[in-house]
Amino acid sequence: MRSRRGVIRVTLAALLALPLLALGTPPGARAQQSGLRPGGGTVRILLGSAPGSAADAVARAMAESLAGVLGQPVVMENAPGGGGVVAASRVMQSRRDGTTILSAVSGSLIGPMLDRSLPYEIGRDLIPVSQVTAAMAVFVVRASLPARTLAEYLAQAKASGEPQNFGNYGYGSSSHLQGLLLARSAGLAMDPVPYSGTTQLILDLTSGRLCCAFIDAGSAREFIRNGQLRPLAVTGPRRAPNLPEIPTFTELNIANFEPQIWQGMFLPSGTPDEIVTAVGRAMAEAITRPEASRVIRELDYESVGSSPAEFTAMIAHDAPIWRRIIEETGVRIK
Predict the structure, then answer these.
(1) How close are the terminal C-alpha atoms of the chain, in Å?
(2) Cβ within 8 Å of residue 163, ≥6 positions away
(3) Shortest CA distance to 173 belongs to which of 328, 334, 325?
(4) What is the model's pTM?
């Protein structure tokens, strides 16, 4: 029987050899050989929000699928509080052995830019491991408005001289920042109206209380199809797969709307590169498993499964844009 020390030595060797194993070993076998648990014990995925959200559903599905990849227990724990600070702090304080993972959404990139008192920063304190999902926000107007294109809406709104009430998910959210950015870009007077969820926001849109909003494409699709909302443009670097006929803001020559809405996985800074690589490979495989694929598809998100390098590059692209938007709109918490 091998000693525990021997097992750790073999596991690390397997982690370091992953690129070679990838040439001729089936995916399932690679996960078993690497172990992905150099420190041993149960793998934990922490999420900084309460149960019931879309992010919660994705994190739970990924935990189940990752357990199948690793052949060991993986649990998902909700750690709400402080706008994600509780979960991030627990991960930052954990051992650098790959067994404590943070599942976070794109707001975790924006938060420290808005509130400088937050004790974490992606890249400095948390290492990007894998982008799990991507989504585009769609700018919609209520169907009773005559505008059929974004240019028509902006021209009509400006000509009216009336402030435009736009729905958003709260001060400093991406939907709030994008609404303010659009107003600034077009020279419009727009009043933000915050909501805690999509249901009431859409109800107020369709009833006429609001003119418009940035909503994730999945949540808006049903209301677009039944004619209650009219989509005029989507954010992100490409068209939304579930709304392929709607142009991006970039195509319409309106800048700074490229960032995506995403959910991803992170490890604490200082985690060895070989462990980061191994966890990233396991995540990329887990996202292809039936449970994770089903949940992500039902939420109308895109499955990504990027490598640590790819996720890091995406964040490096988006971060300066969000920082510029925050500076231009003057939105700050502290």
Answers:
(1) 57
(2) 189, 190, 191
(3) 325
(4) 0.83
